[in-house]
Amino acid sequence: MKKLAIFALCMVFVLFFSTWVWANSNGQDIDLYDTDDQIPPYTVLRGIITYVGPFEEDTEHQFYLGRQDFRVKITSKGNFYGKEFDLENIKMGHPLYDLDLRVGQRVLLYAELSGEEIINIGIQSYARDYYLYILVGIFVVVLLLIGGFKGFKALVTLTIMAIVIILGLLPLILKGYNPLNLAIGFSSLIAVLTLFIVGGVNNKSIAATFGVIGGLIVSGVLAVIFGKVAHLTGFSSEEAQMLSFIDEAIKIDIQGLLFAGIIIGTLGAVLDVGMSVASSMAEIQKSIPEIKPLHLLKAGMNVGRDIMGTMVNTLILAYTGSSLPLLLIFRAYETSYDRIINMDLIATEIVRSLVGSLGLILTIPLTASFYILLMSRGKKREENG
Fold first, then answer.
1. Are residues 14 and 64 in the same domain?
2. Number of structural domains, the chain?
3. Which among 5, 112, 211, 313 is least buried, having the fewest CB atoms inside 10 angstroms?
4. 293: which residues sit within 8 A by CB, 6+ positions away?
5. Signal peptide location in the record (predicted)?
6. Do 331 and 365 fall into the same domain?
């Protein structure tokens, strides 16, 4: 059984790697900057604030509050390193666009180039990545200290997941391939790699893999059915609307992208449930080797029900939390229930939450049943010598 599982894992990896190579060699490429206009090349530079002047209010213009002078020093390595520029910071009275500058602050700059010279430069945003790297470092240290070797394996699977999505899933979607099929396929690959790396090649991981893939397929089918009958467009977010303008030559299936997002958003919770149920059943069997399959199945289902009660809440609350500003707008303007429930955005979130939860719930009996099947086959082989 272990050899069969390893062979299946290798075949799945080879299949997806071959598909990725074929798609990248034969697919259509998107040129985001295909234009006949002569636009100067630009680059993003890093800088540090060395001087900030006083804020000067402006009462004559209604579109911004005022301005302040500041000086920035380029810290990016290259021809512009160490150069300083005197710039202007305009505040419009909106926290999303206004920058509160101080000396020593790291910022990103937008620079237009003409040859090796900067012809125009302005501030783009705060340099937030420095603090994000610190947070990532804290996360890795805590994960390794508490999780030990298990934590290291979780870190490996997290890295693999990021590589698969960034280098595999996203480029293929941009080349015009069906997002839903890609999401189910790559999610299955992530599930196989994650469960086998974390849990090892054994009945526990194999049962969890079948249960997770089954749950993902159910979520995908339900997402398509109810997404179609509810006429969900996929254009409920600004980002989805922007995708329709990136290139006329490529038609990304925005509705399929919505369904793909549902699958990927469900993957984490389904992985957690599948492994938890399979692991608990393996520990019970280890402690009570003579336990009957029916009793073990009931035990696995009981554990799954306890996990389900909290995990479904987690999934729905995660989607609710991301929509909290919108819910506050509805409450503040006393929008009618009929209007709210029939909005594309709200219907999309409801389908996303419930379809993901249904996939999660069905993962429990699927995982438990597959584990019993594998256990029964193992006992039959032992009896037959």
1. no
2. 2
3. 313
4. 372, 375, 376
5. 1-23
6. yes
